Amino acid sequence: MKRQLRWVLSIGTALAGMSVAAPYAAAQEAEAEESREVVVVTARRREESIIDTPVAVTAVSDEQLDIAGAIDITSVQRFTPNATIEVARGSNSTLVAFIRGVGQQDPLWGYEPGVGVYVDDVFIARPQGAVLDIFDVERIEVLRGPQGTLYGRNTIGGAIKYVTKDLNLNAPEARLRVNAGSYNQLDMIVSGSAPISDTFAVGGALARYTRDGFGTNLNTGADHYNKDILAGRISAQWEPSDSVRIKFAADRTEDDSNARHGHRLLPSGNGAIPVTRSIYDTRAGLPARNSVETQGASLTAEWDMNDAITFKSITAYRDSETVTPIDFDSLPQPDFDVPAFYADDQFSQEFQMLFETGPWSGVAGIYYLDGSASGAFDLLLRSLGVTVYQAGEQEKENFSVFADATYEISDQWSVSFGGRYTSDETTADVTRELWLGLGSGSFSPNNTTSVFLATQTGYTGLNRTDEKFTPRISVNYEPTDYLTVYGSYSQGIKAGGFDPRARQDLDPTGLSRTGFAPEVVDSYEVGVKGSFFEGALDLNTAVFLADYKDQQITVQQGADSNNDGVNDTFISSVFNAGKSQYSGVELEGVLYAADNLWFNGVLGYIDAEIEEIISGGANIANRFVTQNTPEWTGRLGMNYVYDFASGADLNFNVSASYRDEYYLFNVANPGFPPGVNPVFPQGGPPLDPDAYTLLDMSLVYTSPTGSWKAGLYGRNLTEEEYKTGAYNFVTPSQLGRPRTRPSMERRGPSRRASNSCTDPPLTTGAD
Length: 767
Hints:
Blueprint: E1 8-16, H1 18-21, H2 24-37, E2 40-41, E3 48-49, E4 57-61, H3 62-68, E5 83-87, E6 95-99, E7 102-103, E8 115-119, E9 122-124, E10 137-144, E11 158-164, E12 173-181, E13 185-195, E14 200-211, E15 215-216, E16 223-224, E17 227-241, E18 244-255, E19 291-304, E20 309-327, E21 337-357, E22 360-381, E23 386-408, E24 413-436, E25 451-480, E26 483-494, E27 519-532, E28 537-559, E29 569-594, E30 597-612, E31 614-615, E32 618-619, E33 632-643, E34 649-659, E35 692-702, E36 708-714, E37 722-728, E38 740-745
Parallel strand pairs: 8-11
Antiparallel strand pairs: 1-12, 1-36, 2-3, 4-10, 5-6, 6-7, 8-9, 10-11, 12-13, 13-14, 14-17, 15-16, 17-18, 18-19, 19-20, 20-21, 21-22, 22-23, 23-24, 24-25, 25-26, 26-27, 27-28, 28-29, 29-30, 30-33, 31-32, 33-34, 34-35, 35-36, 37-38
């Protein structure tokens, strides 16, 4: 066993022009005092105190992310109640995001995200490449509930806003951060900016993230769960006058981390290949080469037309390509292997008019998105001697008009009205072919050994248009400057589409041609935000109820294609559930016990239930569950700052994050007892994750001038191991020889069954 470091050591330096270096410490103290009283967010497209914002929003600053040792956007999950923000199964940088039970589990092209991800107000349409690494960031905001009257792209579950830092027009800046940690982790992040004139500045950031794997592919020797990412951003900011601001930004990320094939919970069907001793090892036969390239550019222009009206334009383009091998069976032989390719691109244009005059304030806008998502993969089924080729493309054209206005009735009462008209046009091609042999000529043109058998799906030019007006209303009451009480109603929508795995040959009625309909949610929320006991306690609470209609549910099941009584393939079906209801409570608070000691806590509870799915005249809702939605989530943290006489300080932070058990899919995977399955007479374990608690600590020293920091970070010190994704083909409708494969994330060191002792607590550096 190779020796591993126990902690992540992070060292950062900041250099600035001499004109701003002298007052740095005093300014830092003033900012710290101010941040204790006021947290500023832009959740409503204008800067305002989080206490005055009548929406449920979590704001995590760059300082909080630094203290927590956050590496990528999934770390925000620990700060946010009723949220699941994870890496998708089998991938390194594809995002699975759920807020209050609403999200997108299947990252395949053709499905709309339930949670919107924004980088500086630019919507990222696809989950591939959306696991953003933390660098050059000012804060991350998580808005819970439907979004549409304030944001360019409507999202039914919420929004995650990644806000980068503005450039310094007054003096040059340079920052360097180095992280070294367990598994030979070495991260280097360098960023800076320089003013070219009094009105123009340029800047950039470059980040390199590397780490050995938590495990090994015992078949090929390749690292398993490693990290190899290169990311960069350049920007330019021009402010020719006090009323005009123009910012250009471009970014690119190359993720060459090895493919994540996961850990198999059952031996091979014939019992010859046992379960690996470490849950981070695999015996997958597909190569480790995995590549994700994503890039984009945006141009944002703001013009203060007068004291009351600001015009804003956001123009953006993004694209990405993913080449990934997915070994479902996690065995050397290609019993269920999927080499895959994904590609997407998007162009968006948004115009906003922000206004504030007398008792009125708000925003009105027009949004346009033209995007496409496509992909292709081979499904290699060695035991059947065939290959299924699946490919397709879905083009999305969205046009929306939205507005949200607030009227101040008095110093204490205000009311907000909002509305959005959305038109989504979807055009789709779906192809599915059956080939004799391993590999298809359609996916690999150089493959001349396989023989084409049949076209199972040949849809071209499928088209549907979904239109909807969604309203919002909010009443806000502020009895004091430090207390806000609000109640709101909002409606959200997620557009319909077409099943990218549709089976035309097994769909005699042709229902798959019409696609699946939009889903709609009516969300009711009551919240209280305030500062109590002369500022000693900041507390934000929200109670919500969401009535869901036509929820889009995806189910894959076995199918008998030749009527011989044996399921020799599988079909996918997407349908709209009749009714669901989600209700819950959220609390976020900070208790200041002393000037240098404070405690923070997050608590989320949700009761999520699918109430009605009518099939054949009967309600079969009890067969389905809500996915990626723990009943309870929470976090409790403590922060202590010791001030040295020199002006330096030492920040000690400890936190525990809890997530209840939950379901990975819309159907439960409880495992099966011995004697049920003849191939696996010993039975099989459950796939859905159990409850778990993660313990993190950090110790960060800041120099007297604030020009450099050094930190020691420990993550998951109790060595928790838990699942974040899974595949299950051991069912009554199993495909040929049964296979099970969960995809598991590394959260601390593995425990090997053959060892009489375990390694001491370690940190992985990245989550």
